Amino acid sequence: MNTDNNQNDKKLVSAIITTHDRKPETVLRAVNSVLNQTYSNMEIIVVDDSSPSFRRRFDVKQSVCGASDKIFYIVNEFSLGACASRNKGLSSASGYYVAFLDDDDEWLPNKIEEQLKEFSDDSIALVYNPIIVVDEENCCERIINTESESGYIFRKLLKSNIIGSTSNPLIKKSCLETIGNFDLQFESCQDYDLWLRLALRFPVQYIELPLLRYHNHSDIRISLDSEKLISGHERLNLKYADYINNDNDTWYISHSFLIPHYLKKYGRKKAFALWISCVKKRPVKLFRNIDLLNYIVFGFNSYKVLRKPLARLYCGIRDKYRTIGKFRHTREISCR
Length: 336
Fold this sequence. Notes:
Elements: E1 13-19, H1 24-35, E2 42-48, H2 57-65, E3 71-75, H3 82-92, E4 97-102, E5 106-107, H4 111-116, E6 126-128, E7 131-135, E8 140-144, H5 154-159, E9 170-172, H6 173-179, H7 190-201, E10 204-206, E11 212-216, H8 226-239, H9 241-244, H10 248-256, H11 259-266, H12 268-281, H13 286-298, H14 304-323
Parallel strand pairs: 1-2, 1-4, 2-3, 6-10, 7-11
Antiparallel strand pairs: 4-9, 5-11, 6-9, 7-8
Helix pairs in contact: 1-2, 8-11, 10-12, 11-12, 12-13, 13-14
């Protein structure tokens, strides 16, 4: 174990920023948040993945390169996607540690300095923290990812992506080299898959300081694309099936999450079939199951006025399947 935090002061950190069809001032905000870090031994790699038809591509490059002569600017001839661009940035990175930053997010000035303090144990692969979500449409902020899980957190992480955004963690590069870079076969959830692979092999560390400002705005994100989201999560469920299928709670969480997206893409019939499968796995999740049923039937989350009649409907369906032996109950549920 290395307990001398001062040794981290000498180690290079590579900041990798990917950008795609973004306004110059937005990209520059991200770049400046790296330039303004209190930790100085850093290199900045910007990978421009904008489409060739993006009219402001030259303006972005001029703006970013004018901010500092430390910046290594890579231009993709054709758009490769965010994770292929991150992998490209990684291949050019020289740092002992690496950190990614999306072009519309920004780090707090002490992010890298504070995260480096947590690498006191040489086995730690990744340090993460809470996230400040900036809701630009409603002009408000909230803090998420406040679950303080450290150590070998793979099982916990499989139930919920508590590490969150790609812009959040600081990662030891040698650990990435051990497990491999972003898996480009995923249409979404590439970052979640990377966190899971790291957590399966190495311990991680949580720090209780929010150090990232994640901007939630009206621009299109993959997280809003149901087709890509379904594809990514189904691939995750298949890739980690040996772990997911052996735990009913994990199976339920990983599949019930998809029901609203199934409804949007495939319609009520397929969403309802998935709902039935989830109810069979975890019939004791009464109000969650009722909310999902309500979403399928009415298209919005249930309110108290609807919960009682829907609870009766739910119990009727549950009892029907129980009668023919399709439910395995661990305890009774009261619908009163």
